[in-house]
Amino acid sequence: MPTCPNCGKEVYFAERVSSLGKDWHRPCLKCEKCRKTLSPGSHAEHGGKPYCHNPCYAAMFGPKGFGRGGTESHTYK
Fold first, then answer.
1. 12 and 42 Cβ atoms separated by less than 8 Å
2. Are 57 and 46 in contact (CB under 8 A)?
3. Higher pLDDT among residues 49 and 72, named by residue
4. 52: alpha, beta or left, given left = phi > 0 and alpha = psi -120 to 50?
5. Residue 64, exposed/middle/buried by CB under 10 A (0-12, 13-18, 19+)?
6. Which of 39, 33, 76 is nearest to 58 (CA)?
7. Which of 34, 37, 42, 55 is deepest in the core (most CB within 10 A)?
8. Containing H/E element for 23?
9. Are 5 and 22 in contact (CB under 8 A)?
10. pLDDT above 80: residue 22
11. How far apart are the C-alpha atoms of 55 and 57, rounded to whole Å?
């Protein structure tokens, strides 16, 4: 029986949601930052953890700088 990566309890077939190559309980598949419940396939992944596309993943791992996108967003090192 697979275990949920979030709560560590067994995931039964009737309550299983598969995402990121793992089996989750539906309420356990949440954004790692804002804790919003996610649906399988409609979220981003970073480091094996789920994130909602907007605003969490975009703010944390997207382009940096003024406006977060466009020509003015390039950061110089």
1. no
2. yes
3. 49
4. beta
5. exposed
6. 33
7. 55
8. strand 22-25
9. yes
10. yes
11. 6
Q: What is the pLDDT of residue 65?
A: 60
What percent helix, strand, coil does the chain show, rounded to 5? Answer: 25, 25, 50
| 32-36 own/partner pairs: CB under 8 Å, 24+ apart | 32/56, 33/60
* Separation of first and last alpha carbons in the chain: 49
DSSP class of 29:
-
Euclidean distance between CA atoms 9 and 26, whole angstroms? 13
Q: What would the two tokens of residue 52 be?
A: 């909602």
CA atoms within 13 A on the CB side of 52: 11
